[in-house]
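User: I've been going back and forth on whether these two constructs are worth ordering. Before I decide, could you fold them both?

Assistant: Sure. I'll take them in the order you sent them. The first construct and its structure tokens:
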Amino acid sequence: MWGLITGVVSYFPFAWYSHRYLDDHGMPPGFSRRLLVFIVASVLSTGLGYGVSRLTSSPQHLQAESQMQKKTMQLLGSTLHCVNEPSNPQCQQNAAEAHQLLQQMLSTETGKQRQG
């Protein structure tokens, strides 16, 4: 929570400082400059927020986050593999399971809408 608050609050000083820095170095105002200020302030505030979040998190939370990142990377890797080889039987099974899950979710939603 502290990381989120720090990131949001720090965006504005980072944007102001970036704007002043580009003024001092003579970059003309315009869309490119505004985009650059936005990107620089976003990256810096995100990094600061991540650092604060990392410092204030419990070890159990960090371990759970690490496991979630590993699972996500495995999922992305298998999805990329299926994009390259869609005829693989495992990919077809995963696609069928995803389609079945989607149908379940959609039927649940339409049931809720009819009742409401």
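The second construct, handled the same way:
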Amino acid sequence: MSIRHHLFASLLLICLMAFVAGSASANELDDAERDAFLQRLQTAQQDIRTVQARFTETRTISTLPRPLVFTGTLYVQRGDSLIFLRYEKPTQHILRVQEGEVLFWVQDSPTADVMQMDDTSASGQAGSNPNLFDWRPQDFSGAISREDDGYHLVSAGGENGPQRIEVVLDPEGLYATSIRITPKGGGATVIELHDVRINEPLPDVVIDFTLPAGTEINEMNRP
């Protein structure tokens, strides 16, 4: 189980980075509609302080006979720059992104992995630290279309990223409900959000989470 893969997926739950344009849809917004939508998205983003949601992550890998399915709960608090994913199945583990640090811990494990985002980006490349909480929708250069299930934002990955990313936003609240990541090597990861709650206080167990006493820290990208 790769911490870099989980990091990449979790970042996409919160931000849409400025990838190059992706393929167009028959329902793609025209220039005026696009500008109005991005302004609306900017306003909606500013009003969001916290997000809580159940998620299902389905990962299809060409070398495996069936998809891998992960379920859990996502917590986000913008003021503290906190992303907290509690994976429940098939294994219980925590991924926390806070103040430029990524923590990965499998429940009851004597060790935890820590990685500094100053040295890695979502694609695992050095020297690029995306701003998760203050990204500008106006900088998004991919295709935007209005479909039956919401707004679809499609981007083609950069040189070191996936081949295609498609994010579906709720038509009213403009929060992500589905993310599909298609890597260049084949397969796909689909993340679906359910029971999304906006601006409700996060549980204390998330805000005050600490590792059990005696847990050994593995600094993944430090000499």
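Notes on the second construct follow. The mean pLDDT is 79. Residues 31-47 form the longest helix (17 residues).
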